[in-house]
């Protein structure tokens, strides 16, 4: 009998972890976003993917413009500086990096303000979204 209770407890804990996994991934990305633009970009793309806005086949610039129109954000500035940092032979200035980094928290707030919390919870429970994110982005 104790073996069944132990197995049931383990199964319940695993189910809870599986259900919470998309949110835990978001918390991890959001935590790492403090370091640099690369991690901020990963967190932004993951959050948007979870909210039903995957980048898919759009160019980074087109995607940023669409998101800016939808949420009233400044993702285009962030994307421009991030692309320059990652791909250009001339590095962005510290001022550009600081400006891009400063868009992160207002961006997250704007997305959350446009999507009601109940809908965000439901979207985070959709296990397809994180699978899509990791399959499409790697």
How would you summarize the topology of this molecule?
Blueprint: H1 2-32, H2 37-50, H3 60-71, H4 75-87, H5 94-102, H6 104-114, H7 117-125, H8 128-137
Organism: Arachidicoccus ginsenosidivorans
Keywords: Membrane, Transmembrane, Transmembrane helix
Protein name: DUF4129 domain-containing protein
Characteristic key phrases:
138 residues, mainly alpha, elongated, membrane, transmembrane, DUF4129 domain-containing protein, transmembrane helix
Tell me briefly what this model is.
The protein is an all-alpha fold and 138 residues long. It has one domain (21-137). It has eight helices and no strands.
Question: How does this structure look, described?
Answer:
- Keywords: Membrane, Transmembrane, Transmembrane helix.
- This protein has 138 residues and is an all-alpha fold.
- It has helices spanning 2-32, 37-50, 60-71, 75-87, 94-102, 104-114, 117-125, 128-137.
- Helix 3 runs antiparallel to helix 4 (75-87).
